[in-house]
Amino acid sequence: MSSDGTSYDKDNATLTTASYYVTNPIKWAVSNTGSFAGASNPNTNYIISSQTLSANTLDQELFQTARMSPSSLRYYGLGLENGNYTVKLQFSEIGLIDPPTWKSLGRRVFDIYLQEKLIEKDFDIRKEAGGKSFTAVVKEYRTPVTNNFLEIHFFWAGKGTSFIPSQGYYGPSICAISVSPAFIPSVSNKAPNSSSSSNKTGLIVGIIAGVVLGLVIFAILVWRQKKKNVNKDEEELLGMAVRPNTFSYSELRAATEDFNQSNLLGEGGFGPVYKGKLYDGRMVAVKQLLVASHHGKSQFMAEIAIISAVQQRYLVKLYGCCIEGDKRLLVYEYLENKSLDKAIFGKNVLLLNWRMRFEICLGTARGLAYLHEESSVKIVHRDVKSSNILLDRNLNPKISDFGLAKLYDDKKTHISTRVAGTIGYLAPEYAMRGHLTEKADVFGFGVVALEVLSGRPNSDSTLEEDKVYLLDWAWRLYEQKHELDLVDPILPSYNRDEAIRVFGVALLCIQASPALRPPMSRVVAMLAGDVEVNEVTSRPSYLTEWQFNDISSNFANDDCSRSTSLSTALTNIQTSEPSDPSSTVTYMGIDPSADVPLRHNSIREGR
């Protein structure tokens, strides 16, 4: 029992050139590979000991013995509940003594891996201890367990010395290992009874598993066997021609630290989003889908495969999904910066200069044009708004949540009483009649463009009465020929021609009739200056009468015919999903507190 209450098991088995052993009870497995070069007795130095007391510790007994390996030494923690763990590795250099003798010239250098990931390169115990031997060094790391076992690997990479203080005296060395969960276990962990004498006698390497499920299986063999077994879930998916990447639920639990609230990035209409780190080191955003899909597993996976295949620089990348039982999760790329609404009028605004704002408008338009007209699967986003436009490390815009509406039962995802919460983004024909085409996305883009131009949300009751509603104010300024009065006053400078262009394009996009709104490809051309911006002749009827004119055969025009595949299934939608900007925290980007400096010409143009 250590000073912190940890109970250690002893590791004093005889390991030689290529051997392993498993503790009893089965909690740990240890394997060793290699023989010491030039050693007269190759079995002598696998365990080293010293009666010299180590400094910097209250647990002297742990540091009087150590296991050493000539090449590769692995420890496997078995039967662990999946999740994140804290691994404590304790070292003391007891084989190389301090100066002034020549034996102190020896150097022990090795690499350390956790779950096959390199965490320490050229690790030198004595160097870590300030150049002193017989000094405890404690290192702690956080690592995920996804298949009920943990692998700790010490590897000698041929560095350091090999003949000091004697031939065959080199390789990684470890005194004690302990592992504890970074979550509340769902099962008990009662350590086996053992007498104090057995704890004190022959203690070589102390090891304790933080959570032991009582599994008496060598986890490596179990894991390999699981890969061979085809369960019912897999059988259902075997017939699919194209399958998306899949993640296990336990893997995503570990990545997000059991969906810890500290990792919560935001919560939208489809469900909460958590920051996570996958086993391979990738940072991801994990979205838990709350509304049950009406699709079967294979149908759900097929739709995810389609959405995953839709890739473009201005679209958030979907890495894959998890589907276990009634659980549905999506795994997206992780973006460093906030969503656009938080960037331009949130509490911690980013310093977006005019060039950045213009590129955000242009990039968003290109992303929507790709969804509507260029992708092999034509997708109507249905919920274009500034909170669904995310910013990457270089403040490039990326459209999120496209294609998700196809995954859900229409009756469960439509709203009625809360539609007014986001009326500022909803096209009138969609809000009132439920008629959905890509022209509804064009309307939403027009509102976003005005928000970016003005630096304010589409509705703000704190402003003067004539400025509360952004669309109304914009049309009033247009009629008064004071368009540039809409430009965000915090901008120190801006391009006059580009600002007028954005303003004019936005007014075209928010026309009442969908037939009068340009397709997104033309929006891109107008913003880029390739074609002239058409002049707007009249204020939309929804701003003058607060009611909607009858919309007739315009819905059957050629623009609508392009909305095939995913979008055609959406044309009968009655209302929009709830996404009240006052209550919806947007993400998939981090909510950073760090300032983003004002930069110039940092956004690349992509055509």
UniProtKB/TrEMBL annotation:
Question: Is Signal there in the keyword field?
Answer: yes
Report the membrane topology from the UniProt record. Single-pass membrane protein
Pfam families per the record? Malectin, Pkinase
Residues of the region (Disordered) are 572-607
Q: Which SUPFAM superfamilies match?
A: Protein kinase-like (PK-like)
The entry's protein name is: non-specific serine/threonine protein kinase
Regions of compositional bias (Polar residues) in chain numbering: 572-586
Q: Which GO terms describe its cellular component?
A: plasma membrane
State where the protein is found: Membrane
Give the principal location in a single coarse category.
membrane
Task: Supply the alphabetized keyword list.
Answer: ATP-binding, Glycoprotein, Kinase, Membrane, Nucleotide-binding, Phosphoprotein, Receptor, Repeat, Serine/threonine-protein kinase, Signal, Transferase, Transmembrane, Transmembrane helix
This enzyme's EC code(s): 2.7.11.1
Q: Which domain of life is it from?
A: Eukaryota
Instruction: Please give the coiled-coil regions recorded for this protein.
Output: none
| Membrane-crossing residue ranges in chain numbering | 202-223
| Top EC class, one word | transferase
Recorded GO molecular functions are: ATP binding; protein serine/threonine kinase activity
Protein kinase domain residues:
259-533
